[in-house]
Write a structure and sequence with these properties.
This protein is mainly α. The protein is built from five helices and no strands. It has one domain. The longest helix has 24 residues.
Length: about 90
């Protein structure tokens, strides 16, 4: 979403598809993560990430673009920073 605004989601279906797909991948990866690994990082909202993936996959006809935009613009970059810190350790 860098350089984009929420209103772009109303006009750019390709952007919506790209964000939905990217968040589905993140959610799928989180779901495949070992419970031990998730347990070592309780500060990461695993259930929310996995739940969003389920919502995007199973209710794709009813995606709230406000939530999608906020997730892509705020939550995803924060999650990336957390994952980068974990990988650096």
């Amino acid at each position: 979403m860098e350089g984009r605004r929420r209103e772009d989601l109303d006009r750019d279906q390709m952007l919506v598809f790209a964000l939905v797909h990217a968040l589905q991948i993140v959610g799928e990866a989180a779901g495949k993560m070992a419970a031990e690994t998730r347990g070592r990082h309780p500060d990461i909202p695993w259930s929310m990430i996995i739940g969003m993936r389920h919502r995007l996959v199973h209710a794709y006809f009813d995606i709230n673009l406000d939530i999608l935009g906020t997730t892509a613009a705020e939550a995803a970059p924060a999650l990336l920073a957390q994952v980068q810190r974990i990988l650096a350790d």
